[in-house]
Amino acid sequence: MGAELSVIIPTYNERDNIRLLLKKIGQVLDGVSWEAIFVDDDSRDGTNKLVREIALHDSRVRCLQRIGRRGLSSACIEGILASSAPYLAVMDADLQHDESLLPKMLKVLKSESVSIVIGSRYIEGGGADGLNKARFKASRLATFLAKFFLKAEVSDPMSGFFMLKRSLFEKVVYRFNGRGFKILADIFASAPGKVSFKELPFSFRKRHSGESKLDMLVMWEYFILIADKLIGRFIPVNFVMFVFIALGGAVVHIGVLGFLLKNIGFNFQTAQLLTAIMAITANFLLNNIFTSNDLQLKGWHFLRGIGSFYIACSVGAVANIYIATSLYNTNIPWWMAGVLGAIIGFVWNYAVSSTFTWRKIGKNC
Ligand SMILES: Nc1nc2c(ncn2[C@@H]2O[C@H](COP(=O)(O)OP(=O)(O)OP(=O)(O)O)[C@@H](O)[C@H]2O)c(=O)[nH]1
Ligand SMILES: [Mg+2]
Q: Which residues contact 336 (CB under 8 A, 6 or more apart)?
């Protein structure tokens, strides 16, 4: 007989939490036919090895290892897709979620006509003591923003702890945004109609072991999720972002080039070269900031990374300066020559930064 309840646990470097978590789940789900699916994004601390070791002796435990991928939402979606159970729970591995809610959630789903039960930190009886002040404020802000695109009055749409019926998942699976951290918000925003839900309070505990994965990339992906749900029906968010970045880049380029030409008095070629160096540096820094924390290049690795990035981008920069200077010499306006050259550089830098993967560099360093 297959499991009635699958507990989907996304993991990234959570080795020291796994045994205790499984022990606690086993205790509270005594008498329930359950399984635990760990969806691990190739953690380097041996999380997946440990889960497999345990799975050799316990057929309720499985590991779904993803290579070259990151993302909590997509991990949960793929974990659910790998299960056949009619009831599906999602919970973190770091013991912040109160496992004693699991049997209560299951009972509600079986006895009441709701499709999803959410563990909430923000209703009577719940708490978020595990969050520090700054994180608490960020969580409240994210919750407030969610109200604009969710079709339901959920008190804690940022919760990563919930249980749903497979029938609800099947209704939303083709409509998911699937990026980022906030799968619950994604479920509510993607559902075709109203979702019947119930919230149960719980106290969000402090992380047991390991490090938080919340970083700039996660916040950025949340912003993309909101944008996608607001305007994605009319125009692809990636396209809008591309246009903004390109236009923003052109404005900054003209500003810096104009300043170097008119205020400092450099000749056109030197000014365009310095502007290109600035663009390549900004490109590298932004990419490094919007990369998950553990892959960010720091110290010596940063210097090595930026050095090789300059070398890789130099081909585009030479083409940029050659084309811009030739155009400038044909008497077209300085700013137009500058931007046309920069477009060549931009396309090249874009190609370089999409192949210059922070994961590979991080691993090799
Ligand atoms: N598979 C996978 N799991 C992830 C990824 N990022 C985070 N997780 C897991 O998702 C769960 C939630 O991540 P946390 O870092 O604990 O996020 P959080 O609870 O908002 O932050 P803290 O309060 O600081 O712990 C944990 O079990 C992580 O291991 C990812 O990219 N892939
Ligand atoms: Mg956590």
A: 327
